[in-house]
Amino acid sequence: MNWHDIKPSPDGSHFLLDGKPLWHDRYTTVLSFHAPGAAPVKDASGWYHIDAAGDSLYSMRFQKAYGFYCDRAAVLCPDGWLHIDLNGNACYPERYPWCGNFQEDCCVVRSPVGYHHIDPSGRALYTERWQYAGDARDGMICVLRAHEAFHIRKDGSRPYASSFRFVHVFHKGFAVVLDKDGWCHIDPTGQPIYAHRFKYLEPFYNGIALAIDVNDRHVLVDEAGGITLVGP
User: Fold this and answer.
1) Residue 232 banded pLDDT, cuts 50, 70, 90
2) pLDDT of 34 strictly over 90
3) pLDDT above 70 coverage of the chain, percent
4) What's the pLDDT score for residue 52?
5) What domain range includes position 215?
6) Which has the closest alpha carbon to 118: 89, 156, 144, 67?
7) How far apart are CA 214 and CA 41, in angstroms?
Protein backbone atom coordinates (compact mmCIF):
# COMPACT_ATOMS: atom_id res chain seq x y z
CA MET A 1 0.00 0.00 0.00
CA ASN A 2 1.34 3.40 -1.01
CA TRP A 3 0.71 6.21 1.46
CA HIS A 4 0.23 8.60 -1.47
CA ASP A 5 -3.05 6.80 -2.19
CA ILE A 6 -4.48 7.28 1.32
CA LYS A 7 -6.91 10.23 1.51
CA PRO A 8 -8.86 11.86 4.37
CA SER A 9 -12.59 11.15 4.32
CA PRO A 10 -14.89 14.08 3.39
CA ASP A 11 -16.01 14.44 7.03
CA GLY A 12 -12.39 14.33 8.28
CA SER A 13 -12.99 11.42 10.66
CA HIS A 14 -11.05 8.58 8.97
CA PHE A 15 -8.97 7.62 5.94
CA LEU A 16 -9.93 6.22 2.55
CA LEU A 17 -8.08 3.98 0.12
CA ASP A 18 -9.58 3.75 -3.36
CA GLY A 19 -12.66 5.46 -1.96
CA LYS A 20 -13.23 2.85 0.76
CA PRO A 21 -12.64 3.24 4.53
CA LEU A 22 -9.17 2.16 5.58
CA TRP A 23 -8.98 0.45 8.99
CA HIS A 24 -11.84 0.71 11.48
CA ASP A 25 -10.33 3.62 13.40
CA ARG A 26 -12.34 6.84 13.69
CA TYR A 27 -10.82 10.10 14.83
CA THR A 28 -12.01 13.55 15.83
CA THR A 29 -9.93 15.00 12.96
CA VAL A 30 -7.51 13.68 10.36
CA LEU A 31 -5.19 15.58 8.02
CA SER A 32 -3.41 14.44 4.86
CA PHE A 33 -0.38 12.17 4.65
CA HIS A 34 2.94 13.83 3.84
CA ALA A 35 6.41 12.46 3.13
CA PRO A 36 7.87 10.25 4.38
CA GLY A 37 4.42 8.75 5.01
CA ALA A 38 2.90 10.23 8.17
CA ALA A 39 -0.41 11.97 8.89
CA PRO A 40 -1.59 14.11 11.82
CA VAL A 41 -4.69 12.82 13.63
CA LYS A 42 -6.67 13.81 16.70
CA ASP A 43 -8.59 11.55 19.06
CA ALA A 44 -9.59 11.73 22.73
CA SER A 45 -5.93 11.61 23.76
CA GLY A 46 -4.89 14.62 21.64
CA TRP A 47 -2.99 15.19 18.39
CA TYR A 48 -0.23 12.88 17.13
CA HIS A 49 1.07 11.30 13.91
CA ILE A 50 0.40 7.87 12.45
CA ASP A 51 2.14 5.90 9.72
CA ALA A 52 0.60 4.25 6.65
CA ALA A 53 -0.30 1.18 8.75
CA GLY A 54 -2.33 3.33 11.15
CA ASP A 55 0.18 3.00 14.00
CA SER A 56 1.24 5.95 16.17
CA LEU A 57 4.81 7.08 15.53
CA TYR A 58 5.42 7.97 19.19
CA SER A 59 3.72 8.08 22.60
CA MET A 60 3.50 11.87 23.10
CA ARG A 61 0.30 13.82 22.51
CA PHE A 62 -0.06 17.47 21.52
CA GLN A 63 -2.69 20.21 21.53
CA LYS A 64 -2.32 20.56 17.73
CA ALA A 65 -0.16 18.97 15.05
CA TYR A 66 0.46 19.55 11.35
CA GLY A 67 2.11 17.46 8.66
CA PHE A 68 5.79 16.71 8.19
CA TYR A 69 7.78 18.94 5.87
CA CYS A 70 11.54 18.38 5.51
CA ASP A 71 11.09 15.67 8.19
CA ARG A 72 9.87 18.29 10.69
CA ALA A 73 6.30 18.79 11.95
CA ALA A 74 4.88 21.83 13.75
CA VAL A 75 3.11 20.96 17.01
CA LEU A 76 1.54 22.88 19.88
CA CYS A 77 2.45 22.09 23.51
CA PRO A 78 1.18 23.84 26.65
CA ASP A 79 4.24 26.13 26.56
CA GLY A 80 4.06 27.00 22.84
CA TRP A 81 4.79 25.89 19.28
CA LEU A 82 7.85 23.94 18.14
CA HIS A 83 8.91 21.32 15.59
CA ILE A 84 9.37 17.62 16.25
CA ASP A 85 11.11 14.86 14.32
CA LEU A 86 9.55 11.56 13.23
CA ASN A 87 10.14 10.08 16.69
CA GLY A 88 8.25 12.90 18.38
CA ASN A 89 11.41 14.50 19.78
CA ALA A 90 11.74 18.28 19.98
CA CYS A 91 14.18 19.58 17.36
CA TYR A 92 15.29 22.51 19.55
CA PRO A 93 14.60 23.89 23.06
CA GLU A 94 12.78 27.11 22.06
CA ARG A 95 9.00 27.52 22.11
CA TYR A 96 7.18 30.07 19.96
CA PRO A 97 3.78 31.82 19.92
CA TRP A 98 3.47 30.41 16.38
CA CYS A 99 5.53 28.57 13.79
CA GLY A 100 5.02 27.56 10.17
CA ASN A 101 6.09 24.56 8.11
CA PHE A 102 9.58 23.93 6.79
CA GLN A 103 10.15 24.68 3.11
CA GLU A 104 13.59 24.38 1.50
CA ASP A 105 15.07 23.53 4.96
CA CYS A 106 13.88 26.92 6.23
CA CYS A 107 10.90 27.78 8.44
CA VAL A 108 9.25 30.98 9.59
CA VAL A 109 8.52 31.40 13.32
CA ARG A 110 7.03 34.23 15.35
CA SER A 111 8.65 35.37 18.58
CA PRO A 112 7.53 38.19 20.90
CA VAL A 113 9.75 40.59 18.89
CA GLY A 114 8.67 39.55 15.39
CA TYR A 115 8.99 36.99 12.62
CA HIS A 116 12.20 35.33 11.49
CA HIS A 117 13.42 32.06 9.95
CA ILE A 118 15.18 29.05 11.44
CA ASP A 119 17.02 26.04 10.01
CA PRO A 120 16.03 22.42 10.85
CA SER A 121 18.15 22.51 14.02
CA GLY A 122 16.31 25.62 15.25
CA ARG A 123 19.16 28.06 14.57
CA ALA A 124 18.08 31.56 13.50
CA LEU A 125 19.24 32.21 9.93
CA TYR A 126 19.78 35.95 10.47
CA THR A 127 19.39 38.64 13.16
CA GLU A 128 16.63 40.83 11.63
CA ARG A 129 13.01 40.55 12.82
CA TRP A 130 9.97 41.35 10.67
CA GLN A 131 6.37 42.41 11.18
CA TYR A 132 5.45 39.49 8.91
CA ALA A 133 7.34 36.88 6.88
CA GLY A 134 6.35 34.04 4.56
CA ASP A 135 7.77 30.70 3.42
CA ALA A 136 10.90 30.26 1.33
CA ARG A 137 10.32 29.57 -2.35
CA ASP A 138 13.19 29.17 -4.80
CA GLY A 139 15.44 30.68 -2.14
CA MET A 140 13.39 33.88 -1.79
CA ILE A 141 11.07 35.03 1.03
CA CYS A 142 8.40 37.76 1.26
CA VAL A 143 8.70 40.02 4.31
CA LEU A 144 6.98 43.11 5.71
CA ARG A 145 8.64 45.83 7.79
CA ALA A 146 7.26 49.26 8.76
CA HIS A 147 4.57 49.02 6.05
CA GLU A 148 7.10 48.27 3.31
CA ALA A 149 7.30 44.87 1.63
CA PHE A 150 10.18 43.25 -0.25
CA HIS A 151 12.01 39.95 -0.71
CA ILE A 152 14.95 38.53 1.18
CA ARG A 153 17.18 35.53 0.65
CA LYS A 154 17.26 32.74 3.23
CA ASP A 155 20.32 34.31 4.89
CA GLY A 156 18.36 37.56 5.41
CA SER A 157 20.16 39.53 2.68
CA ARG A 158 18.17 41.60 0.19
CA PRO A 159 18.44 40.82 -3.55
CA TYR A 160 17.37 44.36 -4.47
CA ALA A 161 16.97 47.76 -2.78
CA SER A 162 13.38 48.58 -3.81
CA SER A 163 10.38 48.36 -1.48
CA PHE A 164 6.70 47.86 -2.30
CA ARG A 165 3.32 47.98 -0.59
CA PHE A 166 2.85 44.22 -1.05
CA VAL A 167 4.82 41.38 -2.65
CA HIS A 168 4.02 37.83 -3.69
CA VAL A 169 6.46 34.92 -4.05
CA PHE A 170 8.59 34.58 -7.14
CA HIS A 171 7.08 32.24 -9.70
CA LYS A 172 9.02 31.21 -12.82
CA GLY A 173 11.40 34.11 -12.37
CA PHE A 174 8.88 36.91 -11.70
CA ALA A 175 6.92 38.18 -8.69
CA VAL A 176 3.63 40.07 -8.53
CA VAL A 177 4.00 43.25 -6.45
CA LEU A 178 1.93 46.30 -5.53
CA ASP A 179 3.52 49.75 -5.71
CA LYS A 180 1.95 53.21 -5.33
CA ASP A 181 0.50 53.02 -8.85
CA GLY A 182 -0.88 49.47 -8.88
CA TRP A 183 0.10 45.85 -9.49
CA CYS A 184 2.89 44.71 -11.82
CA HIS A 185 5.53 41.99 -12.23
CA ILE A 186 9.14 42.43 -11.17
CA ASP A 187 12.28 40.45 -12.00
CA PRO A 188 14.76 39.17 -9.35
CA THR A 189 16.56 42.55 -9.35
CA GLY A 190 13.33 44.26 -8.18
CA GLN A 191 12.74 46.03 -11.49
CA PRO A 192 9.25 46.14 -13.11
CA ILE A 193 9.39 44.31 -16.42
CA TYR A 194 6.92 46.68 -18.12
CA ALA A 195 5.35 50.10 -17.54
CA HIS A 196 1.71 49.02 -17.07
CA ARG A 197 -0.06 48.92 -13.70
CA PHE A 198 -3.18 46.88 -12.94
CA LYS A 199 -6.01 46.75 -10.39
CA TYR A 200 -5.56 42.98 -10.13
CA LEU A 201 -2.83 40.70 -11.40
CA GLU A 202 -1.98 36.99 -11.32
CA PRO A 203 1.40 35.22 -11.74
CA PHE A 204 2.51 34.23 -15.22
CA TYR A 205 1.31 30.87 -16.49
CA ASN A 206 3.48 29.83 -19.44
CA GLY A 207 4.23 33.48 -20.17
CA ILE A 208 0.68 34.85 -19.82
CA ALA A 209 -0.97 36.43 -16.76
CA LEU A 210 -4.60 37.39 -16.17
CA ALA A 211 -5.19 40.96 -14.99
CA ILE A 212 -7.84 43.64 -14.48
CA ASP A 213 -6.73 46.96 -15.97
CA VAL A 214 -7.46 50.50 -14.77
CA ASN A 215 -10.65 50.48 -16.86
CA ASP A 216 -11.95 47.36 -15.04
CA ARG A 217 -11.45 45.16 -18.11
CA HIS A 218 -10.11 41.61 -17.97
CA VAL A 219 -6.90 41.49 -19.98
CA LEU A 220 -3.99 39.15 -20.62
CA VAL A 221 -0.45 40.46 -20.18
CA ASP A 222 2.67 38.74 -21.50
CA GLU A 223 6.25 38.96 -20.23
CA ALA A 224 7.06 41.73 -22.70
CA GLY A 225 4.16 43.84 -21.45
CA GLY A 226 1.88 43.10 -24.38
CA ILE A 227 -1.83 43.47 -23.54
CA THR A 228 -4.72 41.46 -25.02
CA LEU A 229 -8.33 42.18 -24.15
CA VAL A 230 -10.23 39.11 -22.92
CA GLY A 231 -13.48 38.44 -24.76
CA PRO A 232 -15.36 40.73 -27.17
Assistant:
1) low
2) yes
3) 99
4) 94
5) 160-232
6) 156
7) 47
Do 89 and 164 belong together in one domain?
Answer: no
What is the Cα–Cα distance from 106 to 55, expressed in whole angstroms?
Answer: 29
Q: What is the pLDDT of residue 23?
A: 87
Strands (DSSP E) along 87-131, which ranges? 98-99, 107-111, 114-118
DSSP string, 36-91: TTEEEEEETTEEEEEETTS-BS-S--BSEEEEEETTEEEEEETTEEEEE-TTS-BS
Do residues 117 and 151 make contact, with C-beta atoms less than 8 angstroms apart?
Answer: no
pLDDT in tens, 89-98: 999 999 999 9
Burial of 4 (0-12, 13-18, 19+ CB in 10 A): exposed
Residues 44-52 have a mean pLDDT of 97
What pLDDT shows up at residue 1? 73
Tell me which of 67, 95, 123 is where a domain ends. 95
Q: Both 1 and 91 in a single domain?
A: yes
DSSP state of 126: -
Q: In degrees rounded to 5, what are phi and psi of residue 4?
A: -60, -25
CATH number at residue 216: 2.40.10.360
**Helix, strand, or coil (residue 170):** strand
How many CA atoms, within 13 angstroms, populate the side-chain half-sphere of residue 182?
16
- The closest alpha carbon to 225, from 195, 205, 201, 187, belongs to 195
Give the Cβ contact number of residue 40 at 10 Å.
24
88 shares its domain with 172: no
